[in-house]
Amino acid sequence: MIDYQVDADGIATLRWNVADRPMNVMNAESTAAFDAAVRRVLEDPAVKGAIVTSARPEFVAGGDLDLIRGIADAQQSFAASGPVSATLRRLETGGKPFVAAINGTALGGGLELCLACHRRIAADNPQAQFGLPEVTLGLLPAAGGTQRLPRMIGIKNALPYLLEGRKVGPAAALAAGIVDEVVPADQLLARAREWLLAEGAKATVKPWDAKGFKFPGGSPQTPGPTQLFFGVGGGLLQKTQGLVPAPEAILACVYDGCQVDIDTGLRIEQRQFARLATSQATKNMIRTLFYAMGEANRLADRPRGVPVRSYSRIAVLGAGMMGAGLAYVSAQAGLEVVLLDTSIEAAEKGKAYGAKVMDAQVAKGRLAAEKRDATLARVRCTTDYAQLAGCQLVIEAVFEDRAVKAEVTRRAEAAMDADAIFATNTSTLPITGLAEVSSRPAQFVGLHFFSPVEKMPLLEVIRGARTSEETIAHALDFAKRIRKTPIVVNDCPSFYANRAFAMFPYEAMTMLGEGVDPVLIENAGRQAGMPMPPLALIDEVSAELLHKAMKQLRADQGAAYREQPQDHVLTTMVERLGRLGRKVGQGFYDYPAEGARQLWSGLAEVFPRAAEQPTVDEVRERLMYSQSLEAARCVAEGIVSPRDADVGSLLGWGFPAVLGGALGQIDTVGSAAFVEACDRLARRHGERFEVPPALRELAASGGRYHPA
Ligand code: NAD
């Protein structure tokens, strides 16, 4: 785990080499081995100092989350984090100099190890990233990160790394004072040795262990940092609505821990960690954001035995909002892209979208101009279907209109290679129906992207009734190639994400129609941790779009269509009032040219307030449980797996990660309590809250969607 060598000058080299894991991670075994190596350095009189480095491309990638997953109670959690922190403190105060020779990425515990060393020298490695990303999984840096970083670079400078999990490369780390030197990779070890021999002996006492230590930028009680804590604390609450425990715990570590000596600060950090590691919110976040998403990204559900398809050239039909984004992300991933529209101008306009996004990155210095030019050069605009020859995949993103899609499908298939896949990016129309015009329905699949394509990480791969398993496997290969997180979804109107998410705006409109105060609705949505309150959200996507989808469903189902409780609100807003949403400057809100949106004052007249108003908890329950219930129906109908349902809800529509996802919410509340609440809601508000039998059985047996 830790290779140990001592040279003739008495310099020990400790090389991290956790060979049984895909990366160097800190777990019980590796940290015990590291502790033994540190003791050896300190106890061997022949050793003058030590270099800590790695035998692998990365330095140390962080803590092993398997360790945290196994923690059952606060005591175990205290015991899990304590030894690492103690080892680093021993290293720091043992009287011999340690230098971190950081050859590659150092994240989480890996960076904390570096912070404990007496000097940090980084290789000029463009791949290397430094940061403390624990917060993004609901955790906190528990090996001294919350204590050492503020003492090194000041509270104000440290907070973005601690609270947002900011990651930086070597040059930015040097500028921030996180590392002391950046040197060419081939000189890293020589320079570390040189420093140890020349300066090491003078540098074994850290500033915070020396008399008269002055906190850079002031300690927490001084005016600057005090003001800062007020501002940051307030901003945090506004952002998280108090639902996310990790950033609050981190702030407490910094505020409390930086007013006392470092050993007490480290104990404060450990206590906060113990509380977090056992919290349901953190367990939910780790399960979905780390394990479930990891499985989805590794294509765990890819049909077995199908050779991997490697893509080099694809085509996108329709260069509108979605087609433009699709062409851009595909070209960015190194693929040749044929971008086809009805006129060359329309296709060029789509290509220009990617150019605009990249121009902004070039202007900010985040992208080299040559890279942008090379990406753009891979996109070829055309109106000619003959160009589809040689493409392994053709994705259609034309108007959401069956006749237009049918025409495009026929023309494309006539020109495509025999083994190429045809994919549709429809957002509502079932794949099986669209595939009826296809001459090779086994190679017809849904690839449902989200807007804006370059920002949204989720891809729903939709299996039509006749889609082959080989096509599903190859569609998943494409997702991986363009670095999207795929979930596999069986066919139904609106598929999974849009179908379950729609309950949020629908329930909001239903309540508005019942006379619930819109301020109450919006506040409840915000307090529940949704990224945007529901009526504001409808304005963003435009009520017109939802109205169109409703009309389509009505036309498709004919006499079988059952009026939905939100339909009359939609019709009123779109047909009677023309308040289509933000794009026309008026919807549920007014959008003044200057200043923030405001709820439209006319809403009270159109939807008169009921005399009796529900509590905010009742409103929140309706907004949130309706989504989970629809997700549970999708699982019961075999549309999506529980794992993909949760991943899809976090990545597709920003469902609160602290709940673990739409099904995670049911597990968090407890399936029996959830069913009881839905039964109550069904009695009061109607059959849309009726629980599917599979969920009722799960609750009756005390079951969960995910193991505890
Ligand atoms: P859009 O109106 O912005 O673009 C459609 C493009 O298709 C236009 O450039 C149009 O010129 C072109 N087009 C129309 N008929 C054509 C034909 N016969 N041949 C070639 N090109 C043709 O639409 P959009 O928002 O990009 O949506 C495209 C598809 O993606 C729709 O099926 C939509 O449901 C789906 N979708 C949209 C979103 C979204 O948020 N907008 C999200 C997911 C999926």
TrEMBL record:
Return any one Pfam family short name. Answer: 3HCDH
Domain 3-hydroxyacyl-CoA dehydrogenase NAD binding intervals: 314-492
One annotated GO biological process: fatty acid beta-oxidation
Keywords for the protein's UniProt record, in alphabetical order? Fatty acid metabolism, Lipid degradation, Lipid metabolism, Lyase, Multifunctional enzyme, NAD, Oxidoreductase
Annotated metabolic or biological route of this protein: Lipid metabolism; fatty acid beta-oxidation
Q: Which InterPro entries match?
A: 3-OHacyl-CoA_DH_NAD-bd (IPR006176), 3HC_DH_C (IPR006108), 6-PGluconate_DH-like_C_sf (IPR008927), ClpP/crotonase-like_dom_sf (IPR029045), Enoyl-CoA_hydra/iso (IPR001753), FA_oxidation_alpha_subunit (IPR050136), NAD(P)-bd_dom_sf (IPR036291)
Catalyses which reaction? Answer: a (3S)-3-hydroxyacyl-CoA + NAD(+) = a 3-oxoacyl-CoA + NADH + H(+)
Which segments constitute the 3-hydroxyacyl-CoA dehydrogenase C-terminal domain? Answer: 495-591
What Gene Ontology terms describe what this protein does at the molecular function level? Answer: enoyl-CoA hydratase activity; long-chain (3S)-3-hydroxyacyl-CoA dehydrogenase (NAD+) activity; NAD+ binding
The entry assigns this protein to a family as follows:
In the central section; belongs to the 3-hydroxyacyl-CoA dehydrogenase family.
Q: Indicate what this protein is called per its UniProt record.
A: 3-hydroxyacyl-CoA dehydrogenase
